[in-house]
Amino acid sequence: MKPIKYSEIHSPTLVRWGPGGGCLPQKGHSMQYMCDKTGFPLICIPQTGVVAHLLPVTKVQFEQFRAETGAYDDAWYRTLCELNPSADCGSFTEETREGLFLTGIVPEEAEAFARWMGLGLQLPTVEEWRAVYNAVSLYPCFPGCFPKRLCEPAGRLLERLQVQLQPLALLDLSLMNGGVVEWAQNGREWVGLGSPRPHFLPNLFNPLEDEIRPVRPGERLKYYGFRLIRRMG
After folding, report:
1. Contact 143, 123 (CB under 8 A)
2. What DSSP designation does 93 have?
């Protein structure tokens, strides 16, 4: 696969970060923000070898996919929303936050979304997901360090998340911990990673150690969502 070209991303606006510092406009630092085709943020972390969505994929993004492709009918989508009722990007509360994200999905459906998204985006392996988790735990979270061309729902979502979470590290804002269970590939097997909040899924999962498997493969469960990555190089 050819190396990623930043000009291929929806927004060429980049913001560079350094561990322990703030927003760094100079070259040579190890994290950059950009936007995907829906206007939601991606982070480029060279030390992990991947570009990754900052957040799990939202219902807003998936609705754009459905509108453009006609994939999956209204009855299918209602089933997912009944499992995890929708929340608005500008008015969600701490109690309804998980409703922002597209859950109840199975890996094959997430892969169809990834193909539409383009740019070589795909579901991560367990190793890639955990590498991103470890990397974002090292970076402080500062307001205003996102691409200026975020779509309106993404901007409202991130602004409200920062007020609710008061995040110290980018890990907090990414919701890789305290979000949903996210699909990842372990060899030929699909597993879930993450540690949702107890009201969404009672658990004691350690995202760096535990792999979560559905009891019945292919079963729709309200807490399974996903984020996408692209391999660099």
Report:
1. no
2. -
**Tokens representing residue 36 in the block:** 């995907």
Q: In which region does residue 201 sit, left (phi positive, over 0), alpha (psi from -120 to 50) or beta (all else)? A: beta
Q: Which amino acid is at 230?
A: R
Computed over every residue of the chain, the mean pLDDT equals 87
Say how far residue 161 (Cα) sits from the centre of its chain. 14
Q: What confidence category does residue 169 fall into, taking pLDDT thresholds of 50, 70 and 90?
A: very high
Q: Are strands 224-225 and 181-186 parallel, antiparallel or unpaired?
A: parallel
Mean pLDDT, rounded, for 115-121: 96
Structure-token pair, residue 74 = 């209204």
pLDDT of residue 4: 34
What is the average pLDDT across 49-78? 97
Q: Tell me phi and psi for residue 33, to 5 degrees.
A: -105, 150
Query: Which positions ≥6 away from 143 have C-beta within 8 Å?
Result: 162
Cβ pair 226, 104 in contact under 8 A:
no
119, 230 contact by CB (below 8 A)? yes
| Contact in structure between 106 and 216 (CB atoms under 8 Å) | no
Q: Spell out where the chain has E strands.
A: 16-17, 23-24, 31-35, 41-45, 50-53, 181-186, 189-193, 224-225, 229-231
Per-domain boundaries in the chain: 6-231
Domain 6-231 bears CATH identifier 3.40.50: no
pTM over 0.70: yes
Question: Beta strands 16-17 and 31-35: pairing type?
Answer: antiparallel
